[in-house]
Fold this protein.
Amino acid sequence: MPIDPTLPYDDNNIFAKILRDEIPSNRVYEDEWAIAFHDINPQAEIHVLVIPRGRWVSWDDFSARAEAEEVAGFIRAVGNVARQLGLVEPGYRLLANIGQNGGQEVPHLHVHLFGGQALGRMIA
Ligand code: AMP
């Protein structure tokens, strides 16, 4: 079920638990601002989720309220993950789902990073 992105942050969401290492994940990257791990239900050859360490429900919440340093740190982390995975030259895709129409299911900001194959045009 898609989430309401205007609700307050829920510390019991699944990505909060992954951040606290209360449930396992296959991490591929971490720094001061973000962690990245493989999506449990991959939609492409490479499907990684990049999430900020901060308590942000969605891209809307984050872009409206996060400090500039954290916004920059998170965006740089997304780029670092793609470079580390060798995806720059072959190319990749970023996607952030927000709320009902976006189909957002986990109420902690995450950017999907897809790669490892030709991804076609935009929305299937
Ligand atoms: P979204 O629809 O943008 O909220 O995407 C949520 C994503 O989280 C989906 O692609 C799920 O497959 C993924 N996901 C849910 N639980 C886990 C988990 N425990 N570990 C890794 N990925 C997960």
